[in-house]
Design brief:
By secondary structure, this protein is α/β, with parallel strands linked by helices. It has five domains: 95 residues, 3-Layer(aba) Sandwich (GIY-YIG endonuclease); 61 residues; 179 residues, P-loop containing nucleotide triphosphate hydrolases (Rossmann fold, 3-Layer(aba) Sandwich); 177 residues, Rossmann fold; 88 residues, Alpha-Beta Plaits. The chain is 30% helix and 23% strand. The protein has a seven-stranded parallel β-sheet with strand order 10-11-9-12-15-8-16, with helices on both faces. A six-stranded parallel β-sheet has the order 17-27-26-18-25-24, with helices on both faces. The protein has a five-stranded antiparallel β-sheet with strand order 2-1-4-3-5. Strand 1 and strand 2 form a beta hairpin. It is globular and about 85 Å long. The N and C termini lie far apart (61 Å). The structure holds adenosine-5'-diphosphate and zinc ion. The site of adenosine-5'-diphosphate has 16 residues, from helix 7.
Amino acid sequence: MSEAKTVSVLLPIPTDGPYSYTVPEGMSLRPGDYVKVPLGSREVAAVVWDPTDNTVDPKKLREVSEKFECPPMKEPMRRFIEWVAGYTVSPPGMVLKMVLRVPAALDPEPDMPGLAFSGSSPDRLTSARQAVMSFADHGLNWTKSGLAHAAGVTPSVVDGLVKQGALETIMLPPQALQAKPDAEYGKQELSTEQTEVAEALSQTISSGDAGVTVLEGVTGSGKTEVYFEALAACFATGKQALVLIPEIALTATFLERFENRFGTRPAEWHSELAPRAREKTWRQVATGQLQVVAGARSALYLPFENLGLIIVDEEHDLAYKQEDRVFYNARDMAVLRGQMEQCPVVLCSATPSIETRVNAQLGRYRHLKLESRFGDAVLPKLSSVDLRRDPPKSGKFLSPVLMKAVGETIERGEQALLFLNRRGYAPLTLCRVCGHRFECKNCSAWLVEHRFRNVLQCHHCGHNEPTPEACSNCGTLDHLVACGPGVERLAEETLDAFPDARTIVLSSDMAGGVKRMRAELDAIAQGEADIIIGTQLVAKGHNFPLMTLVGVVDADLGLANGDPRAAERTFQLLHQVTGRAGRAGGESVGLLQSYQPEHPVIASIIEGVPEKFFSREIEARKNTSLPPFGKLVSIIISGKDKRETETYARELRLSCPLAEDVRVLGPAEAPLALVRGRYRFRLLIHSPRGFNVQNWIRNWFKSGPKPRGNLRVQIDVDPQSFV
Ligand code: ADP
Ligand code: ZN
C-alpha cells in the first residue's frame, strides 16, 4: 500500500506555522487551495501552504475534509501573510485569520432564479403585458424585479405571464456587484499642474513600474482628481485597484465622485457592510469580477486576483493603525503588499508623515507635488488667538475674537466650523465639596459627561452610569461641577450667543450611528447648517463649499503629551482641519485659540510652510535616533492582578538577550494603567535602524518566561500610541 499523501495547511489560529494533514483519495491539492480541516472537535477553513519538511507519521495525521470551489490564494498573497507576520512578530495564522473573515465566501455564489421568453406568446396581450414582452422577447435573461422595473409594471404582471407560460423560470449566474469602470466616462479637464502630475503618475502605472509614489498636495489641490487618472490607467491594463480611505463609511462623497468619474460605484469594504455584501465582495475580488474596492484598512487583506494599483489616501492618518491582536499600520503593509504583488502604490496626503518624507528624501519613493489649490480657491488665512490676551468669559471656552468672527461669518450666510477633539459635554466631573473626581471603575480614566444622554461614560471601556445628583463620595447634593469643554458644551455656548443659528454637533458617538452622521455631513455640504461643532471626524476629506471659517478651540490639545509624534500629529490635524475652509473659492479664515501661540508647531501652522516644520522635526528625530532613524517596539504586559503583572513584566525584562545598541526601557506602569479591569505595564525597545529587532524579540520570547494564567503580552512594532 502506498503511503498517504500529506499537505501543510495554515490554519487561522495562533501557532508558529502550518500543520500537516493527509489528502483523501481522489482529492488533488496545491498550495493556495482553500480547504476545510478538522481541528479538535470542530472544522475550520484554512489554506494549503507550501510544502514543509514533514516528520510526523502520516498515520497520526488527520485528513483534509473538503476542498472549496474557490480560486486559490495566489503566491504573492501567501508571501504577504508571512511578511506581515514576520514584521509584526505575530503568528502567521493570525494574519490569515484577517483574510478569512468571511468563510461563507469560499463557497460559490448560488445561481439566482430568473426569467426568459419561453417561445410561446401569451393569449391576451394587455398593454402592460406587451411592455414586458417587448423587453423579454430579445433572448435576454432577466430577474423578476429587473424585468418589472424595466417595463414599468408591477411584479404581478410578470407573474401572470409566467402562469400563462410565456415566460419560463431559468437559473441565472450570480450578478457582478459592479459594472466595469469606464475610464472615459466623466473625464475632467485638469489644470496644467494637475496634468503634469497625473501624467507622471499614470505613466508609471501603464509601464508596469512597481514602486511607491508620494502624492503630496495642499488641501483642495485635487489629489483625488489626480489619482483618479492613476486608477484610469490601471483599469486600462485590466487589473484591479484598491483605494484605502480612513473612515470610508463616512465618506459617501467619495463614492459619488468616483461614480461621476467612472460611471460605476466602487465596491465598499468596511465594518458597516452587511454580511451578504461582504461575502459577495470577497468572492468577486477573488474571482477578479470586481475591478475596484474602496475600503478601510482591513481591505488590504482581500484576496485580489490581479492587483494592479494600491492608493492610500490620507496616508498619515492614525486610523490606518490597528492596535488589536495583530498590530499593524495599513500604510506600511500596503507598501509591502505592493512589493509582493509587484504593483505600484500611491501614498496621498497634504501632510505626508515623517516616515514617508524620509523615504522620499532617501530616494526610496518617488515624490510628486501639487502646490496650489484648484481653480479660484486659495488657502485660508491663518492666525492665532492668544488666550492670555483675549480670554473667554469665565466658565466659557470661546474667545470674544472667535465669537465675533463666527457672528460675521453666519451673518454673510456662510458656515463656521468649531473644532474640538473632545466628545461629550465635559471631560471631568468633580465634587466641589470633597474634591472627588468621577473615575471609571475598570480603567484609570475620568468619566466623561454626556449631557444629551444624561450619562457619565468611560471612553476606554464604554462603561456608563446615569449622571448622579449627589457626590458618590461625600453624598452632598447638587455640588458637582463639569470641568473643561467637550463639543456638547460648546454647542450650549454658541446657542447662548447665536440662538437663531442652525447648529449641528458632530462626533463619532452620535446617536443614530454612521447613517445619521452621513446624513448630517450631507446636510452641512448642502448648506443646511450655520455653525458646525465637531471632533476630528469633520476634519476628514469632506467638501463643505460654504465653509469659510474654521475655529480651533484648543490648538494646544495634544502638544502636551509625551508622545514622540505629538508635534507631527498636531501639525497634521490642524493643517487638515483648517483646510476645510475656503475650498470653493473666496476668502476664508482659520483661527487657532492657544495659550502658547509662540510654540513652534502653532507658529509653523500659521506661517503655512510645512516643509520648514517637517525639516526641523526630521532633524530632531535624526539627532535622537527616533523613527525612522531608529526603531521602536512597545511591549504591553497586562493582567488582572497588579503585583503578578508587574512581577512578570520584570522577569520578562531580565530575560532579554544582550545586544549592542539595543535599549530596553521599563517596565513602567502604562499611562493608562488600568483598562477594562486589566493592569498594564510597558516595555519600550529602542534599536538601531538596521537591526533585525523582530528576530531578536522572537528569540527572547522563545527562551524567556511564558505568560501564565490571565497574563497577556502584546507586541507593537512602530508604535503610534504610548498610553
Ligand atoms: P484634495 O483631495 O487635494 O483635497 P480634491 O480632489 O478633493 O482635493 O479637490 C478639491 C475640490 O476641487 C473638489 O471639489 C474637486 O471636485 C475640485 N476639483 C479639483 N480638480 C478639479 C478639476 N480638474 N476639475 C474640476 N474640479 C476639480
Ligand atoms: Zn472604563
